[in-house]
């Protein structure tokens, strides 16, 4: 596995691979790799000739009161995991390499962002699309692999690729879960022992809401209230949001139907957890 830190070196390597006709798969991450990331790498390995994983903790997507400095980092471990998962290239740029100067052009996301995480994290997805647009131009992938745990991010990236005509196929990959069904996350390490025992109830709450919809509940608000009650009854977490929306458009619904997402975010003392399920009613 090659570890590359410079943009020019990354572009040069990929151009050579493209000339050989190789299909490039890309897994963008912020590091502190876990099984969710590994599943993305494995999927890319199955489907592509060349697999590139990037590790870059992007400062643009952290708000002023968020955890950029606290975000977990373990460079040595990340390199070992990426190598074990048979990545061909690990792109590991420094902040000064990605953002050497103040940017002259600013990207702003107008749709699919004023709900869910975007509602309470103003500017977050502007930072996401900015860094991904840069990474897409640097890595030049044919396929990009992203986890459905952050389904809003998948929806925003879907719009980015479509709006800006990137010749890339987006491959959403199912959320990887612990044995007790808690979604894998780099932030799980911040849960106290008590919170860790309570956290699996978030996914159970989502399954409860999904069952209500599949059994005929047509009111999104009724589903939201039922899921919220389940969370409040079984955890000490503070609900940031519970939403029922169309997917991937992420528009509010008058009644349940079509392709939907049931999503939540819950704040524990030192960790904010997100999770979701997709529901299809036709």
Automatic annotation (TrEMBL):
UniProt main location, coarse: cytoplasm
Catalyzed reactions: (R)-pantoate + beta-alanine + ATP = (R)-pantothenate + AMP + diphosphate + H(+)
UniProt keyword terms in alphabetical order: ATP-binding, Cytoplasm, Ligase, Nucleotide-binding, Pantothenate biosynthesis
Protein's pathway: Cofactor biosynthesis; (R)-pantothenate biosynthesis; (R)-pantothenate from (R)-pantoate and beta-alanine: step 1/1
Binding annotation for ATP: 30-37, 147-150, 176, 184-187
Domain of life: Bacteria
EC number of the protein: 6.3.2.1
InterPro entries per the UniProt record, alphabetical: Cyt_trans-like, Pantoate_ligase, Pantoate_ligase_C, Rossmann-like_a/b/a_fold
Residues engaged in binding beta-alanine: 61
A GO molecular-function annotation: ligase activity
Matches recorded under SUPFAM superfamilies: Nucleotidylyl transferase
Binding site for (R)-pantoate: 61, 153
Active-site feature positions: 37
Subcellular location per the Swiss-Prot or TrEMBL entry: Cytoplasm
Miscellaneous comment text of the record: The reaction proceeds by a bi uni uni bi ping pong mechanism.
Stated family: Belongs to the pantothenate synthetase family.
Chain's role: Catalyzes the condensation of pantoate with beta-alanine in an ATP-dependent reaction via a pantoyl-adenylate intermediate.
Subunit-level organization: Homodimer.
Protein name: Pantothenate synthetase
Species name: Pontibacillus chungwhensis
């Amino acid at each position: 596995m090659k570890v590359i830190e410079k943009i020019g070196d990354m572009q040069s390597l990929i151009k050579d691979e493209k000339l050989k006709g190789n299909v490039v798969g890309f897994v963008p991450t912020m590091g502190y790799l876990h099984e969710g990331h590994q599943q993305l790498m494995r999927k890319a390995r199955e489907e592509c000739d060349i697999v590139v994983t990037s590790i870059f903790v992007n400062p643009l997507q952290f708000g002023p009161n968020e955890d950029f400095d606290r975000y977990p980092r373990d460079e040595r471990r990340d390199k070992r995991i990426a190598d074990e998962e048979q990545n061909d290239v690990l792109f590991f740029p420094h902040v000064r390499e990605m953002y050497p100067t103040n940017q002259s052009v600013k990207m702003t996301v107008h749709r699919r962002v004023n709900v869910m995480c975007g509602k309470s994290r103003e500017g977050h997805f502007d930072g996401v699309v900015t860094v991904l647009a840069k990474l897409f131009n640097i890595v030049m992938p044919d396929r990009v692999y992203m986890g459905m745990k952050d389904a809003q991010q998948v929806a925003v990236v879907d719009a980015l690729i479509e709006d800006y005509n990137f010749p890339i196929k987006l491959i959403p990959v199912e959320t990887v879960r612990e044995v007790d069904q808690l979604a894998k996350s780099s932030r799980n390490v911040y849960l106290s022992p008590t919170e860790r025992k309570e956290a699996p109830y978030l996914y159970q709450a989502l399954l409860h809401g999904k069952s209500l919809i599949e059994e005929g509940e047509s009111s999104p608000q009724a589903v939201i209230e039922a899921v919220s009650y389940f969370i409040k009854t079984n955890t000490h977490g503070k609900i940031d949001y519970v939403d029922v929306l169309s997917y991937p458009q992420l528009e509010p619904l008058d009644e349940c139907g079509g392709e939907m997402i049931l999503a939540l975010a819950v704040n524990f003392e030192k960790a904010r957890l997100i999770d979701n399920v997709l529901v299809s009613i036709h």
